[in-house]
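Input record (one chain):
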Amino acid sequence: MKVLFIGGTGNISSAVSRLAVSRGIDLYLLNRGNRKVDIPDVNTIVGDISKPEMIKKVLGEQKWDVVVNWIAFKEADINRDIQLFAGKTAQYIFISSASAYQKPLSHPVITESTPLANPYWDYSRDKIACEERLNRAYRDEGFPITIVRPSLTFDTVIPVAIGSWDDYTIIDRMKKGKPIIVHGDGSSLWTITHARDFAKGFVGLLGHQQAIGHAFHITSDELLTWNQIYQTFADVIGVEANLVHIPSDFICEVADKIGQGWMRGNLFGDKAVSAIFDNSKIKTFVPGYVATIPFKIGIRHTIEWFEADAQRMVIREENNKFLDTVINAYKGGKNG
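The corresponding structure, as predicted from the sequence alone:
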């Protein structure tokens, strides 16, 4: 099977790339060549997908069993890809987001038929627009789509709600005993999935004829409260957790005042409410799919990965400043 990944070296896609190659897939990665590719037996193609005329020359008349775009975010990206790959791929997989699901939820368990509506986050609305364009292309033009909606998935990132992502800031703060923000009272339920688990479901969809026209989310079945998530970080690095619980609306009000308006989408559009996923559909299409990496094991490996190279242990002072600003404002208001 000949597969093209647009991207393929990121937090989620690297694990998928490795598993795909291990299963004998003839995998090509199309990217700008700015990131070192440490995936044995993968084929690399250097090109910028945002420059379609370049890509036409680079790819020529090649045809693909599957094309996966890991880095499409706007409807314009989808229109470009339809032009590039119509008639040249038997399956086009779009990486959407589970944050596209209805906020707030009218039913607590999320299935693929849960409505898509997010009034809080433009990122999610853009993903919804991409999905709608692809569904029109499938219905009206026969463009062979599959949509995949990851939720919070990690391997080489720190999966917290506030204070870190591709940096080491939160771990550094916890080691120094500094306070960490937990939104709300920390009791809402959340689902965090390791990229290697996600990969097992995703690779099973590559070339899957019956998956054409369908959407899937692929997550763990492990449910944790945010209190448990942050406590797990503390347990893994061997420190006492210094957690400060702050209402989400207060966090967003402070964020708005200091030019961090995206926080409202991040919380109210995603992490402030419980996320319980029904994975029956992916398990039906990919028999045997099950997530087997508990968060406590996965995050230990992630922290070890950061600490194996000092260049990865980046401390972002803007993240520290934001956390301190919100905490000081909250404590000042309570004391006042």
